[in-house]
Structure formats: structure tokens, C-alpha cells
């Protein structure tokens, strides 16, 4: 089979200024720009994994709890939930988001909803207010994956998040 392809819809969620756009842009361009504005956008990014072409459609948007939020949750096959390790409120918000997503995806076994929890801004460790352990524990209790990353200083850490998600999706989504 030479033409195996897979499309994955990913939504990046989290409160304001946690680095959702920074992570997305870093994945797509390998760069950290610094300021991103409030754009609502779906980006496509393809790469090869074991000879298979994977296209990620990544929906990045400003924080909102409007009706569009519901739509995003339904549209997505997988979720990247971002908080800042320097922002306790953003971590609490991730906890709530997991519940919201799992109750919206009732047709899936709740253990099977692919969610990655991302603690961003790891480079700002001197301002840390959320321990790594707390992120790890939340992930363990909710069957999510967990990474701490720095969109600003570590491209590889960002790549790991999305590659991990793709690996998980490979087992879930049939090839088209
Ligand atoms: P969004 O609102 O979640 O999309 O957040 P942005 O991506 O716009 O980032 C908000 C602010 O945090 C910007 O000033 C970014 O430069 C900064 N930022 C994002 N990621 C990091 C990071 O990993 N480390 C540091 N130090 N700053 C970051
Ligand atoms: Mg943004």
C-alpha cells in the first residue's frame, strides 16, 4: 500500500495567553515569533510517518466560550489542551475542558478520546506555580497524555506533542 493517508483534525484549546498560537506556529514554521494577535485559523500541516502521509488540520483560536466552542469540540478528532506553568487558573481551566470534551464525545469511550495536556512556558521555571507532578497526575486520572514544553525555547518539545498525538490516532482512525 503506497498511498496511505490520514487526516486528523486537532483543536488547540486553553485560556488566554498560555501559548496556543505560539505552539501552533512553532510546529508549522519551526519559529518562535513572540507576538501572535488574536487570529482564528485552521492550518494544515503534512508529514510522513512510516511512509504514511499524515495531514494535521489544526484549529487555533482566541479563547471564547461561544457557540463556536461547541463546534470546535465536535469538529476535532483530537485535542491539545494548553496551560502555562506560571498560571494556576489556566491549569484549572484545562481540568474543566477535559470534562466538557468527554461529555460532548459521548459516542466514544471516554478513555479513547485523544487528549494531550500541555504545560507550556517551561523556560519560565523561576515563575512556576504549577508543579510538573500536578500535570502528570491530572493526565493519569483522566487518561490523557502529558508534556511540559517551551514553545519559546524548544522546538523539539513541541514536535513531540504532535507526534505523540499522531501515534495515538494511527491506532484509532482508519486509513482513507
Ligand atoms: P494564546 O493566547 O494562547 O494563543 O497565547 P500566545 O501564543 O499568543 O502567547 C501569549 C504570550 O506568551 C506571547 O507574548 C508569547 O510570546 C508568550 N509565550 C508563548 N509561549 C511561550 C513560552 O514557551 N515561553 C515564554 N517565555 N513565553 C511564551
Ligand atoms: Mg492565540
Automatic annotation (TrEMBL):
SMART domains: RAB, RAS, RHO. Its EC number is 3.6.5.2. It holds the Pfam family Ras. Transmembrane segments: none annotated. Gene3D superfamilies: P-loop containing nucleotide triphosphate hydrolases. It is an enzyme of class 3 (hydrolase). One of its GO terms (molecular function) is GTP binding. InterPro entries: P-loop_NTPase (IPR027417), Ras-related_GTPase (IPR051065), Small_GTP-bd (IPR005225), Small_GTPase (IPR001806). The keyword Hydrolase applies. It catalyses: GTP + H2O = GDP + phosphate + H(+). Keywords: GTP-binding, Hydrolase, Nucleotide-binding. PROSITE patterns: RAB, RAS. Belongs to the small GTPase superfamily. Ras family. PANTHER family: RAS-LIKE FAMILY MEMBER 11 (PTHR45704). This is small monomeric GTPase.
